[in-house]
Amino acid sequence: MLKLRTPYPRFVNAKEIIHGVNSIKALSGLQAVKVALIIGLSLSKKEELLKKITSSINCHQLHVIIRSWEDEPTLSSLQPVLDELIPFQPDCIIAIGGGSVIDGVKLVWAFYEHPGLSDSVLSRAFALPKLRGKARFCAIPTTAGTGSEVSSSAVFFDPEKRKKVPVVTHDFLPDLVILDPNLLVGIPRNILLSTVIDALSHAIEGYVSKLNNPLMDRFSELAISSISNHILKAIDFRNEEILAELQYAAMLAGWVQNHCVVGVSHALAHQMGSFKVPHGVANAIFLPLSIRFNSQDNDTKQRYALLAKNSGVGDSFYDLEQLIIRISQFGSFSLKLSDYGFTEEYTKDLLLLQNALDDPGARFNPVSLDHEKLTNLLENAL
After folding, report:
1. How far apart are CA 20 and CA 24, in angstroms?
2. CATH number of 186-381
3. I need a labelling partner for 365 at 20 to 30 A (CA). Which of 3, 20, 83, 289 fits?
4. Backbone torsion region of residue 279, taken as left when φ is above 0, otherwise alpha when ψ lies between -120 and 50, otherwise beta
5. Distance (Å, rounded) from C-alpha 19 to C-alpha 7?
6. Cα–Cα distance between 372 and 3 in angstroms, integer?
7. d(CA 350, CA 331)
8. Sequence-ordered list of residues with C-beta below 8 angstroms from that of 196, at least 6 positions apart, any chain
C-alpha cells in the first residue's frame, strides 16, 4: 500500500491468523474450488489426524501431496511436487508442517505462479514477481519456533555454493495462518526444544540487530518471557495450553526476525546444512557464543541486560546464555559441532567463512565480523 522513502519502523503480517485448540476446523470456512494440501512425511503417517484435517477443508477438489525434499529444500528437490501440482491447477495451496515444509511450499507456489524463475531473481530481495495470480496460500505450522508462517522469506539450500539462499518477498506472507496446539501434541522432545531455541534466537538477535524497531523490541521481550515461563513445564509436550503459549511465542519471535534481521548465530547456523546439523540445534550451539562475543561491545551488552530484565529472566547477558543452556540440557542433543562431523579444518574453510560473512545475519550483527572472528567462534563451538 505504501512506498516509503523514509525507513520508518513498520509491521507487515499475514492477512489472517486463527489460533486456539481445534482451530484447524476453521478450514471449513475456506472458499476454494481446488485445494492442494502439501504435508511432511510425519503427518502422512498420522492417518487419524490427517483425516481430521482433510475433512475440515471446504473445497470441491482436494489433492494431498507429500513433500519431496528432506531437511532444507533444494531447487531440484521441489520438482516432484511441482509435477503433481501443475496439472491439478489449485486455486489454494495449504502447507502443513515445520519450517522446511512451509519454506519449500512457498517456493513451489512461486514456481507454480511463475515457471522458469531465474536464480538471479530468486536471490535478489523483493525481485520476485507478484504472487496470487493463480492461488492463495495458507500456512499451518506443526512446530513452535521457525516463524516461517509469518515470514516474508523462504530459504533453500544451494549444494554447489554450500549455503542457504533466502528468497524474499512480502507476498510470501500467507493469506491465512492457523495455530492449533493439537498439531504439536506428542511432538518429539528434541524437535520441539530445538525449534523453541530457534525462536529464542530470533527474539534475542533481533533485539540487538542494527535494524531498530521499538514494536519488535516488545515482541522480543514477550516471546522470551513466555518461553522461559512455559518450556520447562512441558514435561511430555501434551499440555495444549503450554503448547499454545509456545506457538504464540514463536510467532512473536518470527515477527521480530521478519522485521529486524538476525545476527551472527544465524549466519553460522546457515552454514551447517552440509553437516546435517538441525537449524535449531545449530543456534543452540552458536547463540550463547554469539551473545558472549557481542557483549564485548558495551552498548550491545547493555541491550542484552535490558532484554533480560524486561523479559524477566535476569539482569545481564549471562542470564540469556543460561536460559539457552538450560533448555538445551532439557533435550538430549549434543552442543558440540565435532559430534556432527565438523572438524577443526572446517573452521578455516574459506568458502564457509565467506558464505557466513555474506549472510544477512552477519551484516546486521551489532559487532562487525571478519574471517578471523568467525573462525574463533567456530573453534569455540567444537
Report:
1. 9
2. 1.20.1090.10
3. 3
4. alpha
5. 32
6. 40
7. 33
8. 144, 145, 227, 231, 246, 249, 250, 280, 327
Please, what's the b/e burial string for 314-331 (b: 16 or more CB within 10 A of its CB; e: otherwise)? bebbbbbbebbeebbebb
As a whole number of angstroms, the distance between CA 298 and CA 301 comes to 5
List phi, psi (to 5°) of 38. Answer: -110, 125
Q: In this predicted model, what pLDDT tens digit does every residue of 332-343 receive, in sequence order?
A: 888 899 999 999
**Residues 185, 254: Cα–Cα separation, whole Å:** 21
Cα distances (angstroms) measured from residue 313 to each of 88, 249, 308, 309, 320: 50, 15, 5, 6, 7
Q: Is 380 exposed, middle or buried (0-12, 13-18, 19+ CB in 10 A)?
A: middle
The answer for residues whose C-beta is within 8 angstroms of residue 377's C-beta and 6 or more apart is 264, 268, 286, 289, 290, 293
Cα gap 8→28, rounded to integer Å: 38
C-alpha cell at 211: 535494524
Instruction: Give every strand in the sheet of 17-19, ordered side by side.
Output: 17-19, 176-179, 136-141, 92-97, 34-39, 61-66
Q: Where are the domains of the chain?
A: 17-183, 186-381
Provide CATH code, domain 17-183.
Answer: 3.40.50.1970
| Contact criterion met (CB below 8 Å) for 217 and 207 | yes
Q: Dump pLDDT digits (tens) for 237-268.
A: 788 999 999 999 999 999 999 999 999 999 99
Q: Which of 294, 356, 354, 299 is nearest to 320 (CA)?
A: 294
pTM to 2 decimals?
Answer: 0.95
